[in-house]
Structures are given as C-alpha cells and as structure tokens.
Design brief:
alpha/beta; globular; nine-stranded mixed β-sheet
C-alpha cells in the first residue's frame, strides 16, 4: 500500500499539544504518514513556555537531508524556525529538494504570549522562506508583524495585508481569524486575484493550544493526498473547527489545553 507522506519541520512541544507532536497527530488523523525534522526543544506545558533549546542548524539540515533522500515527501509544513541560521538551513534544503508543496506557519509568538522567534530573524523569514511557500498561514498578529504595522482591525485592513503578504512571494496566503472578535472566526484565503472568506462559529473554550500548528499541518496533509490548495484549506478549516469544538472533551493540563485531534474517532 502506498501512503502519502508529509514532513513537518518545527519545534517539539514537551506537553504534546503543539509543534511537532500536534503536526504528527494531525497527519495521522488525515491518514498521512508523518516525518519530522526538529528545529528546537521546548520546555512547555499548557500554561506557558519555560525554555527553548535550539537544535544546531547543521543538524536541522541533516534531518531534512535524511528524510528527503529516502522518503517520497509530497508536502512540507514549516513551523517554529527559532533563529536566523535555522531559517537559512531550511531554505537551503527546500532549494535543493524542491518539494511540490510548502505550507509555512510563521510561528512568532506562542498562544501563551511567549515570543518564539527573535525580531532579527523575521527579515530572514520574509526573504528566504515566504518566497518558497505554496501557502503562508499567519494569524492576525503574525500578519501585522511580518508587515511591521498594527494588527488589522477590520475586513478592509485584513484584505490589504493579505494582498501585500502575497506580494512577498508566497503562492497564496491564509490569514487566520482566531484572534479576531465577534461570533464568527473568519479566515481569509488569498490566491491570485481572489479573496475567499471562510467563516466558522467562534467557539467558547480555553483549550486552543496548538490550533495554528494543527491547521497548517492539516492543509499540508490534504495537499500530500493530492487535493487542490483551495480544497485542502476548506477541509482543514472544517476539521480544525470540529477539533476545537471537541477540545473540552479532553482534560489535559491546568491552562490552555490542546484541541482534540482525533475527534472523528470518538
């Protein structure tokens, strides 16, 4: 049996709710075989990040090379890149192996508020990784940080930011609306001249740890299975909404618990 394969290049979450662990759970939930290249170890739980230990850039390269050299990777998800040298290492591997699909989640700040990407590395993210992305998936604060401007407060500002982010070189952009206000969480998908609004009910729960990681890896999983980009985004949006709605069925930790990756199988 041939199984679609996706690679996640991201940091490890010791509490299992975000990062590499969330990505691999998401790949499994979508029936995709998951490989990984770890960029950093984190000491964290549902209440916050206590420490970050970056993996040497050369070893990030070694992990990527080992995977690409042996596995038929159909899609790559990139999450926490930690620092300048690691961003450059990832970009170099992508240039060499040229995977068909790259989903870039520009992880800068954890849901707990802890900063995960130094300010000096943001320019490298813009210049080296965004142009290689099939899809860029920032939330509202990340979109603003990439453009070095205030967080968009209305639809017109979101549309403006999305088009300018796409002009940085990504094939498409998905601005996530989880940090917005109102009864609906609206994501905006920018592809070509089209802008598609993807609304979903805003769910009242504190258990949203790993939401961004899981959404981007769900898109990568669907791309690995051969879906079009728009279809992959729509399927991932539906899945993440259900995973958040089911999150309170899990009781993990004393802070912001994880979403329910395997809600379909309850």
């Amino acid at each position: 049996m041939t199984v679609p394969i996706a690679l996640t290049i991201a940091g490890s979450d010791s509490s299992g709710g975000a990062g590499i662990q969330a990505d691999l759970k998401t790949f499994a939930a979508f029936g995709v075989y998951g490989a990984s290249a770890i960029t950093a170890l984190t000491a964290q739980n549902t209440r916050g990040v206590r420490g970050i230990h970056a993996v040497p850039a050369a070893f990030v390269t070694a992990q990527c090379e080992a995977v690409f050299d042996d596995l038929d990777v159909k899609a790559v998800k990139i999450g926490m890149a930690v620092e300048l040298s690691i961003i450059e290492a990832i970009a170099s591997s992508l240039s060499r192996w040229k995977p068909k699909h790259v989903v870039l989640d520009p992880v800068m700040v954890a849901s707990s508020g802890d900063r995960l990407l130094p300010a000096e590395a943001v320019a490298s993210l813009r210049n080296h990784l965004i142009p290689k992305a099939t899809l860029l998936t920032p939330n509202l604060p990340e979109a603003a940080a990439l453009l070095d401007e205030p967080i968009a407060s209305d639809e017109a500002a979101i549309r403006s930011q999305g088009q300018r982010l796409r002009a940085m070189g990504a094939r498409a952009v998905l601005i996530k609306g989880g940090h917005g206000q109102g009864s609906e969480s609206i994501d905006y998908f920018f592809s070509g001249d089209d802008v598609i609004a993807l609304p979903a009910p805003r769910i009242a729960t504190a258990n949203t740890h790993g939401t961004g990681c899981s959404l981007s890896s769900a898109i990568a999983a669907s791309l690995a299975k051969g879906e079009t980009l728009e279809t992959a985004v729509r399927h991932a949006k539906t899945w993440i909404t259900a995973a958040i709605a089911a999150a309170d069925r899990l009781r993990v930790g004393k802070g912001h618990g994880p979403i329910h990756h395997f809600h379909r199988f309850d």
